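REQUEST FORM: STRUCTURE PREDICTION
Request ID: SP-0412
Submitted by: Lab K.M.
Chain count: 1
Length (residues): 255
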Amino acid sequence: SSRGYSAQNDRGWFRSLFVHKVDPRKDAHSNLLAKKETSNLYKMQFHNVKPECLDAYNSLAEEVLIPTLHSDKDYPCDLVGSWNTWYGEQDQAVHLWRFSGGYPALMECAEKLKRNKIYMEFRTERSKMLVSRRNQLLQEFSFWNEPLPREGPNIYELRTYKLKPGTMIEWGNNWARAIKFRQENNEAVGGFFTQIGDLYVVHHLWAYRDLQTREETRTAAWSKPGWDENVYYTVPLVRSMESRIMIPLKISPLQ
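STATUS: Completed
RESULT:
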């Protein structure tokens, strides 16, 4: 009933008084929301591949990316995950990289790659297979899980939210409480927000055994008191949203 819903909202409001909230006036959003114990920077790449070239693209990536970057300790970066989009944008590859040491690590890696003959040849060959590409630099939310390697088989969902400018702090405050409702099946992989590229963009990365498990896990969240409040308060912050279901490549540490 409407009376019951109002009472539930009142209880939610009362509980929120006792949750520590970030004050948006004191510092930059990135400093308030990002993890303090690490200086990690993330890069997410979206490569739209010519349909007839997707298998060749995957083979080339598997042949070069792991030995050239991920396994070479001279490069301060490691591959978090690589996928092909299954549902969503078709013929697309998504790569997520972690740079340990922030922007200096990113620039060190870029300078070293310019002098890496194998990598430059890889880029030339790869460019023949692409329709378009874009990237974003991200930080991880302080309250989200660390994206650690996991065994498969899994499917991954990348849920992307484009927020209204000025609402990132409010989003973070709500999800800092809500993330606990999505931990029972170990589905939460990582949560990120953009620093460079499209701004006020949030990415939530989830792992599921299959599409049916995804449906059951998402439905179960609604039975937990407090989840509906998170949805109620965060939906008005969103300008648009997108869901990709992705399949890991063989080289992906997230399987």
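NOTES: The mean pLDDT is 87.
Reviewed by: T.R.
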